[in-house]
């Protein structure tokens, strides 16, 4: 038989004193989101099949949406690819959100490809607003940047290039690079205006999370 004995302990004497709590003032600071608008141009390098070709970036441009006239542009041939990628990465890492037209299906994955080819760190996850992929679902109307800009009667026109200009641009001739530079800068400036109008009209969703790793989704292109 097991017996238990309960022993009552005398509680220890405690000493308390009142504490006066003063109101605590917190100062919160808020700044607008830093939104980076980007665009790239690229050229084919070789065809693996009739439906698939490898590419490399020949021109990159970006600007903060609150500074549309201050566009940074890098051209292959003026600098090498690692230098171009490093300059872009410095701006990308400062951004709260990245925006552009079809950037989740083309520009960002292509930038990742350049980074992997040159053994550079990948882009990190970020908020994105893609004015093609995140545009309101429609049918019977083109969702290209050129056609949306025309529909919205924007001030900035698309810089058009014909076959001869594209061939010169892809060969990195001085004249071709000038045309490509004007186009990529023009696309950024036009897109900043277009995005603002789409937001005003409620035609594009605010933003989504883009994953920079292997789980990034690529949308199929339709004109």
Describe what you observe in this structure:
- The longest helix has 28 residues, at 174-201.
- This protein is α/β, with parallel strands linked by helices and 223 residues long.
- It has a 6-stranded mixed β-sheet with strand order 3-2-1-4-5-6, with helices on both faces.
- Helix 4 (163-170) packs across helix 5.
- The protein has one domain (35-210): Ribonuclease H-like superfamily/Ribonuclease H (Nucleotidyltransferase, domain 5, 2-Layer Sandwich), CATH 3.30.420.
- It contains 5 helices and 6 strands, in the order E-E-E-H-E-H-E-H-H-H-E.
- Strand 4, helix 2 and strand 5 form a beta-alpha-beta unit.
- The protein has helices spanning 81-92, 103-117, 145-151, 163-170, 174-201, and strands at residues 35-49, 52-64, 72-75, 97-100, 126-130, 208-210.
Write out key terms for the chains shown.
single chain; 223 residues; 20% strand; disordered C terminus; 6-stranded mixed sheet; globular; Nucleotidyltransferase, domain 5; alpha/beta
Order of helices and strands: EEEHEHEHHHE
Quote the beta fraction: 15-25%
The termini sit apart by 88 Å
| CATH topology tier name | Nucleotidyltransferase, domain 5
Q: What ranges have pLDDT less than 50 throughout 5 or more consecutive residues?
A: 215-223
- How large is the count of helical segments? 5
Tertiary shape: globular
What fraction, in percent, of the residue positions are helical? 25-40%
Which CATH architecture would you pick? 2-Layer Sandwich
Q: Main β-sheet: number of strands, strand sense, barrel status?
A: 6 strands, mixed
Average pLDDT rating = 89
What is the spatial order of strands in the main beta sheet? 3-2-1-4-5-6
- Count the beta strands: 6
Q: For the record, what is the CATH homologous superfamily label?
A: Ribonuclease H-like superfamily/Ribonuclease H
Secondary structure class reads: alpha/beta
Under CATH at level 1, the class stands as Alpha Beta
Instruction: Report the C-alpha radius of gyration, rounded.
Output: 27 Å
How many separate domains? 1
């Amino acid at each position: 038989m097991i017996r238990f004995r309960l022993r009552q302990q005398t509680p220890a004497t405690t000493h308390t004193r009142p504490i006066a709590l003063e109101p605590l003032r917190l100062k919160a600071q808020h700044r607008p989101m830093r939104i980076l608008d980007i665009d790239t141009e690229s050229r084919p390098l070789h065809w693996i099949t009739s439906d698939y070709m490898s590419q490399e970036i020949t021109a990159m441009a970006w600007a903060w949406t609150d500074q549309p006239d201050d566009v940074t542009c890098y051209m292959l041939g003026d600098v090498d690819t690692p230098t171009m990628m490093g300059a872009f990465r410095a701006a990308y890492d400062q951004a709260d959100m990245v925006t552009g037209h079809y950037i989740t299906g083309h520009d960002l994955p292509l930038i990742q490809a350049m980074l992997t080819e040159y053994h550079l760190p990948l882009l990190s996850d970020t908020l994105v607003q893609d004015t093609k992929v995140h545009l309101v679902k429609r049918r019977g109307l083109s969702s290209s940047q050129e056609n949306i800009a025309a529909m919205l009667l924007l001030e900035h026109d698309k810089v058009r290039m014909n076959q001869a200009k594209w061939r010169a641009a892809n060969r990195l001739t001085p004249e071709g690079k000038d045309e490509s530079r004007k186009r990529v800068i023009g696309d950024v400036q036009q897109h900043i205006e277009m995005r603002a109008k789409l937001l005003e009209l409620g035609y594009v969703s605010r933003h989504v999370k883009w994953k920079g790793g292997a789980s990034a989704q690529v949308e199929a292109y339709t004109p």
